[in-house]
Design a protein that fits this description.
Layout lengths: L2 H20 L2 E2 L5 H23 L7 H19 L2 E4 L3 E5 L6 E4 L5 E6 L15 E6 L8 E5 L5 H14 L8 E3 L2 E4 L2
Antiparallel strand pairs: 1-2, 2-3, 3-4, 5-6, 6-7, 8-9
Length: about 190
């Protein structure tokens, strides 16, 4: 058995045992953020294939071999690096290209539901989710907040996270989460 493979298994076993011992709970992902992009890119691919076959320019099909890996590398892979989880001590966020953020439960100052509209009320930035629950910390860290995207993670798991925060910090107000006037959940 190759040594690298052996070390890979050992690392995996260690991570699994740490996760069980410290009771880490991960928010599970959804496919929702990628569906629109996948539909658009699929339609463009079908159009390119149709034109290439109709015009007998089969070389144009090579563009599809370039488009799909670029799409995966620029969109899907960085979004798969975005994770939120919690344990007995606090909430953690990992995002592509950023250091892991941690806010301990006793450091949480507020929890807010935010929608970025691109106006004075909020800004649309590519590195923050559009519809999100933001857990704010006490400000002792550089960026004292954790974004929990309502599109990237399953709503049941987000509710479990908010319940876990409420159990440890009943003094905090948990926002009502709505979507187009429909209440998704309250605590």
């Amino acid at each position: 058995m190759p040594r690298a493979f052996f070390y890979g298994i050992k690392c995996y076993e260690f991570q699994a045992s740490v996760m069980i011992d410290s009771e880490i709970t991960w928010l599970r992902r959804t496919a929702t953020p990628y569906l629109g992009q996948l539909l658009i890119l699929s339609a463009v691919s079908v159009f390119i294939a149709y034109i290439a076959i109709w015009k007998r320019q089969i070389q144009a099909l090579w563009s599809l071999i370039i488009i799909w890996p670029l799409f995966a590398a620029s969109t899907i892979y960085p979004n798969l690096k975005y994770r939120v989880y919690w344990d007995k001590t606090g909430i953690y966020m990992q995002a592509s290209g950023l250091k892991e953020r941690k806010i301990r439960f006793e450091e949480i100052t507020s929890i807010k539901y935010e929608v970025a509209w691109g106006s004075l009320g909020g800004t649309v930035t590519p590195n923050r989710p559009f519809r999100r629950i933001v857990v704010y910390g006490d400000g002792k860290r550089l960026k004292p907040y954790i974004d929990v995207s309502l599109r990237h993670f399953q709503l049941d798991d987000i509710k479990k996270l908010l319940v876990a925060i409420h159990r440890r910090r009943p003094d905090l107000a948990i926002p009502e989460i709505t979507y187009y006037g429909k209440v998704l959940f309250t605590i």
